[in-house]
Request: fold
Amino acid sequence: MNIGAAIRSIREGLCISQKELGTRCYISQSNLSRIESGTCNPSPDTVTKICRILDIPESLVYIMAMQEADVVECKKRVYKVIFPMIRDLALQIATTRIAAVL
Reply:
């Protein structure tokens, strides 16, 4: 799993800078950079905090973080066919803002 890459994709899709997200989550920009680059894994509490600030379900981060190496060999063919669509849908859900209905 690459949770950092998933967070980066969502953050960029929402047009939020690392500095802004870090400030809103009380995480230093350098620490957020290490998380997004994969040199440091975020704690579950940090993932929760980031998702709360981005207003997205944590499950979307974990779906987008999934990699081929996470899949058992007998299911990799299905993963290669289906996962790109699932990842794109998760990103679209995470980055789409819907105006409140009056």
The chain has six helices and no strands. The two ends are 40 Å apart (CA to CA). The first helix runs from residue 3 to 13. The CA atoms of residues 51 and 58 lie 6 Å apart.
